[in-house]
User: What shape does this take?
Amino acid sequence: GGYDPTMLTQSYSDLLCVICHMVPREPMECSSCSQLFCKFCIQKWLSSKNSCPSRCDGKQVRGASKVICKLIRNLTIKCVHCGMVKTIETIDKHQAECKKPKCVNDACETLEQNIKTPYYVILGGSKKIACSLQC
Assistant: This one.
């Protein structure tokens, strides 16, 4: 699978994998019709079928062109955790950090695992951790 196209800041229907309809991770393309696929999707497809999913005569896939790869890497997409807009090239790293528990103060970026002396607050009926800076 790829990146959820509904999280993109603009619509790019021509850049979606024809199998999963997501923005391709590790984009591949058919050598005959140039349709795009996620590497995972096309490998799974070709393990059971010996033809292009677009029903062209092509039976070979290759990595997508440098231009297509660069275009995909530079698409902007919203973080599923905080809604911040990042490029596809940077979103995976951001989301991995973003989902880690942080200090309850939105302005503080201190990760919960790095809080040496925590204190606790009650927010929305549940106990939350805050950093010792009491920011």
The beta strands are 27-30, 36-38, 61-63, 76-78, 85-87, 119-123, 126-130. Residues 15 and 71 are 9 Å apart (CA to CA). The chain has a mean pLDDT of 83. The first strand starts at residue 27 and ends at 30.
